[in-house]
Amino acid sequence: MPVFHSSRRRFVVRAAVALLAIGPWLTPAWAADASTAPPAIRQALQAAWQQHPSYRATEAQLAAARARLTAAGQPLYNPELELSSDDEGTERTNSAGLNLTLDLSGKRRVRRDAASARIDQVTAEARVRRRDFARQWFAGWADLQTAQQRVRTGERRLALVTRFAELAEKQFTADDISGLERDLALLARDEAEAEQAQLLADQADAEARFRTVGGTSEWIAGTALPTDLLPAPETAVDGVESLPDWQAAQAAATVAEREVTVARRNRIADPTVGAYGGRKEYDVGGLTDNVVGVTLTIPLFVRNSYRAEVVAAQSDADVAQADLQRVQLELEADRRRTIDSYAAAFAAWKRWKNSRGTDVDRRANLLEKLWREGELSTADYLLQLKQTLDTQLAGAELEARLWRHYADYLAATGQLERWAGLEGTP
């Protein structure tokens, strides 16, 4: 920000200090507990999830998996009705029969087991999508909160420098300041207007990102996060086996193993038995005879033994096991990263809150006192005024970063769904 270099007009600076002290700086009304999200946040997040296309896609996938389980539990083969008529010379034979292929190798059971394991996989994957949605929604809202705070700070900055410019115009007209000092005040106002336009653009971007995950700022207007009540990160947490990512990979490995069993059972031929009855008529003498018989048909897997399908299924199972090990390694590393990142952001926020330099009102009063006592020049005063405003902007960004790390920490430790009120929802 451009600064005045004249110390001749102290009352201008005194007016700026008065403007800076007008009204308390906006501070959020923190909730009483940070173990769960504020009720307004939980309700808004649940509504956003249930109205988002990802929710409908998840519900459809779960319905499809349940339908496949029902289908896998049905008998593999339906009976076949066979009607035949044979006219050979003086004999005519009409018969009817039923044929049924028997599942003697238990194909139906192993297919049902595979479909059941696939439901577990789809359910775990649904939890992953729901958790990721909650993390994206919350990160988007935290970014929007930051953008709104920065816009409010920018508005105060613009009001201050605009007032400076107006005072400078009056003093220049009265020949109390030089044209250079007047121009510097106008440049400061122009710079503040340009920076405010950028802050408004950043807020529009944050609103757009928030709306892509079904968020609307109207749902949670006036709701703030209990930043000061955030708990310190815990290092002793449950294993990654409780995370939906690991459970989805484990279920996929189970499905692959059961598909191997299905492929092996498919190599066993199922016999078809039949029974028929009918009547044979003779043209000579009008005689008739009853015809009764049974049939047994067994496929011969000679040209195709279906061994390649078993090899392919086993290879898929090996891939799934390797993926499970990879997911476990990644989850353990990601958990360590999120705990460390949240711990660092948590410590930085505590230092920022406890620092006397971040108390804007106290700094404004101290600056005025130093200026009155002649220990601070006008140029230095205005420079520190800018630093004070920048500190307010940096604090908003630090708070948003803290909440993003906290959301990642909750997700990596399996607590995000409970915190957000999505535990047990589809």
Question: Could you characterize what this model shows?
Answer:
The chain is an alpha+beta fold and 426 residues long. Helix content is 63%, strand content 10%. It has a 4-stranded antiparallel β-sheet with strand order 1-2-3-4, with no helix packed on it. Helix 1 packs antiparallel against helix 4 and helix 1 runs antiparallel to helix 8 (360-372). It is elongated.
Secondary structure topology:
Layout: H1 10-20, H2 39-51, H3 53-72, E1 80-88, E2 91-101, H4 107-173, H5 179-212, H6 244-266, E3 272-282, E4 288-297, H7 307-354, H8 360-372, H9 378-412, H10 416-420
Antiparallel strand pairs: 1-2, 2-3, 3-4
What is the helix/strand order? HHHEEHHHEEHHHH
Envelope shape: elongated
Strand content: 5-15%
The Rg value, from CA coordinates, equals 38 Å
Mean of all residue-level pLDDT scores: 81
Number of helices: 10
Class by alpha and beta content: alpha+beta
Count the beta strands: 4
In whole angstroms, the N-to-C terminal distance is 52 Å
Q: Give a quick account of the main beta sheet: strands, pairing sense, barrel closure.
A: 4 strands, antiparallel
Low-confidence spans = 1-32
- Amount of helix: 55-70%
Strand order of the largest sheet: 1-2-3-4
Protein name: TolC family protein
Keywords: Coiled coil, Signal
Organism: Luteimonas notoginsengisoli
Main attributes?
alpha+beta; 10 helices; 63% helix; 10% strand
Short account of what is shown:
Keywords: Coiled coil, Signal. The protein has 426 residues and is α+β, with helices and mostly antiparallel strands.
